[in-house]
Design goal:
Jelly Rolls, zinc ion binding, alpha+beta, eight-stranded antiparallel beta sheet, zinc, 2 domains
Amino acid sequence: MSNRKLFYLNGKVQHYAWGGFTYIPQLLGLPVSEQPSAEYWMGAHQSAPSTLQATSGPLLLNQYIADQPAEVLGTKAAERFGELPYLFKILDVKDMLSIQVHPTKAEAEKGFAAENEAGIPLTASNRNYKDANHKPEIMVALSDFWLLHGFLPEPQLRKVLQAVPELQSFAPVFEKEGYKGLYKAVMELPQEEINTLLRPLADRVLPSYAAGTLEKSDPAFWTARAISNDPEGLNRLDRGIFSIYFFNIVNAKPGDAVFQDAGIPHAYLEGQNAELMANSDNVLRGGLTPKHIDVEELLKHTRFEAVYPNILKGESIHNGQERIYPTPAPDFVISRIGLKPGEVYEHTAAAPETWIVLNGEGVVKGSAELPLKKGVSVFAAIGESYTLTATTELTVFKASIP
């Protein structure tokens, strides 16, 4: 066992309500059921660790790493992180996710310690911090993908505040108090005022949405969808609607990537992606969700600045066989390996790697020989030298440490 460094990995499907029903089961070769499949987790997060198929039987990935951190992660990563520093996921977004912000590392450590001290159980619905880590993340679109990403630049936001009758009263607030004053004003509104204010907007956008005349680049489309999908409907209009108008609506095409750093407010709206993040589940929510919203905490961690969306196209490496998407995050890097039938990719893992085969078939040979097909995941510890051979056209997404 000790000299083997290459394993099949079995991840965990998360059945959150916003997920689709077919994409993840079809990817993994599982039966489609009544239960939504929102995320497929490949990693060692304590709440849902993956399992390795070892010679001696199933082995939890977090246990395998804890038993020999330097051998699996490498000395540097073992000293710096003490655990697998990334969490790799496949997402299928059918309904909009909550508007959210992730804290910095220092703030996560403080928040986690404070909630522990207050005796709030880790599983409590009013818990903000599930761990002591930051959660920068990158997503690579696997389909036509839509998301909200950061505040609109000032000229565009001014235009929106003028053009939408229900938002005009906030234009002076933005002029005087900037992004923070504007966001604080809407996030702290009493629910009755939100209902009164946004009801005419709802009445205007819903018929157009039902008629199919709204473009997805129009905030009215997502506003109408949010109201239509909310069991509360028009009785309790969601304060997250303001964010749909205040944030950039970004459309990423397959292969496009978007990086979300700490403090950038965002929300996934629709589509499938491969997502890689620091090993954390810390989320501060700001609407479009029945989950816990802590406005004070959210405002404390949001970066109140214009964001100019940066769609990352990646860089070609390894003689064009691999496309890598560098980010400022020290915890992770994602890349896509694409091979034609008969093509061979040779590599020595300079850090622990986690892969998922998105399509095609092949075989990887190293300290073990593993046939590959769609939906299969593999874990390679640091130092593993392997040869990946494609039998049909093969696409593999790979998570590693830069």
